[in-house]
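User: Predict the full complex structure for these chains.
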Amino acid sequence: MKLKDLAAQLGLSQTTVSRALNGYPEVSEVTRARVVAAAKRHDYRPNVRAKALATGRSMAIGHVLPVSNSHEMVNPVFADFIAGASETYTRSGYDLVLSVVPDEEQESHYRTMASKQSVDGLLVHSPRPDDPRIPLLQKIGIPFVVHGRDSEVADYSWVDINNRRAFRRATEFLVDLGHTRIGLLNGREDYEFARRRRAGVEEGLAARGLRADPALMYSDEMTEQYGYRAASALLALDAPPTALLASSTIIAFGIRRAAIERGLVLGRDLSLISHDDVLSYFRNGDEEPLFTAIRSSVWEAGRRAAEALIRQIADPDTLPQILLEADFVIGTSTGPAPKTNAKRKA
Amino acid sequence: MKLKDLAAQLGLSQTTVSRALNGYPEVSEVTRARVVAAAKRHDYRPNVRAKALATGRSMAIGHVLPVSNSHEMVNPVFADFIAGASETYTRSGYDLVLSVVPDEEQESHYRTMASKQSVDGLLVHSPRPDDPRIPLLQKIGIPFVVHGRDSEVADYSWVDINNRRAFRRATEFLVDLGHTRIGLLNGREDYEFARRRRAGVEEGLAARGLRADPALMYSDEMTEQYGYRAASALLALDAPPTALLASSTIIAFGIRRAAIERGLVLGRDLSLISHDDVLSYFRNGDEEPLFTAIRSSVWEAGRRAAEALIRQIADPDTLPQILLEADFVIGTSTGPAPKTNAKRKA
DNA sequence: GGGTGCATCCAAAGCGCTTTGACGATGGAC
DNA sequence: GTCCATCGTCAAAGCGCTTTGGATGCACCC
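Assistant: Here is the predicted structure of the four-chain assembly.
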């Protein structure tokens, strides 16, 4: 069933039928009702390809997921982010076209997408410092929103959380509890978000007159095993940290394992604050938060980013920039610095 | 730069340019070379929308992810499966259009996709028993591949692992080690894969003359906390199981936590076999497997499913059905049934 | 020299939709 | 009774590509 058939059936022209269905005012309400009823009856839905060609808009948004080719790793964060975004797209009639592309092919892939004109806008994931994709897209002139920022002054549209502030705050919280040896199990610091988090920790320490100890700072792909191994190494030090900051709940799981294995109780012997993306399958406790955490739902971020992109497509002059503040939730994994350590320092 | 411009520039007709670029034989090699060179020089790439309209093929595959609307949960398994599929699509020039749709809207969403003609084929995730989507798609007549099967005799294309056999084998392995009280921490049993796994366990027990104890069988969304809570409950029984089967590595993490917390050593005090989808962020150990496991990469399954679908689109008469056998890898989490329990039974 | 066959290329139609520009009908103002 | 808006409708062009059905030129053969 195509437009032509439907028009013939109704004894109307294609023009009128098209207008009726798309809500143009030049058609009488009685005709519109007839057309809409007939369309529903025949389950008519316009062919998107033809529509796209005629309007020049494909009603699709591109997401390009970078995958570390060496590891074949895809971060579970993406699943939730995309689920959030997809929700918004579906509601607005957009499709989401996804491609998973090895790091080194990113740039050429973006170029291809743009010249094929298969999408009306792009969502850029995981920006690196001085990410080449951004000037590329600006040059091409296609609407895009970045999840994260590649620098403090970013002249493009983005959605990000205030990583620096959140980690600074968490750090100060720990220092105020008496902790002075604080470790950080960060994500890969060739990504901006991880750099900001580290900067936040350093600022927090500095603000309280402490200095960051590089020996307590780790950075890697955020797996459970990384959390376990790094925490085990840290806890085996002569002067182990009394508190740890983790860049993800998954890392925190690994830390907890290392702690339990040593008979340490979180919140008493070792304090732990985790960043919590509120991932579907890695909830930080149920009703009660398990870990004290910097919490910001990445699902929600996906939703917001999608909205920002759609807004920008509608009006290319707006460049939405959305900074989400993370919640700071107190769980059972933090407490005052243990006496023994205090003594050791004295 | 469009075809017309390129043709004009070269002093050729659109026909010839189009043929040259698409590898048709009716064009001389010298002309083809000229055209290809010019296309590269101008970074010409055909507009996919126009191409799709002209050819009737949109060069896109649809994936519809079900999301339990109540929980807003998206299974991390999808991320790896889709990454694998996307790899294949990209290589074959297909786009992947993704939608995340609440359970109850699944059917209407499939219907819409088909009538909009925006995709050439569909990949169906997470089949339920007697899943209505399957007859629907058969009626519509669009090529599709199901990840999993909704029944033992399935007259459509699917890619699945031999869940039943794998869990049967794991169960027998445990019984042969002397375990008689064996628990199962399964996924949601309103999905086919979980039913098969349970059936496999029951078969394995029956084959060794044992009966399944419903009190030792759990079923739920596969989170770490579910694993922890269910295992804790089981271990607190008067006659606790000496061995557990887990439907995912994430559940196994939870079980391990419960075990460690009780001072139990996996492989000595409690045996554990997990299903391992080889998810990016939940590796079962690094070089050495941590858990004894039924292993089958879901990334690979995505790749195979995508290949099957593309094959089917090319030749609708083939209905590829691919049954992957899982590896059985021995880790450190299994061992003979502890004496104390053996005594208790005697 | 006229036919045959092949290699190369082209004009134009068509994919299913939107949108421009025009047209007949109606009704109110004068 | 004429004129002019306004309304409701339509025919046709166009989106950028593929593909059908020739057209042209040239070598080859009898």
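Residues 2-4, 14-15, 18-19, 22, 46-47, 49-55 of chain B lie near DNA strand D (CB under 10 Å from a C1').
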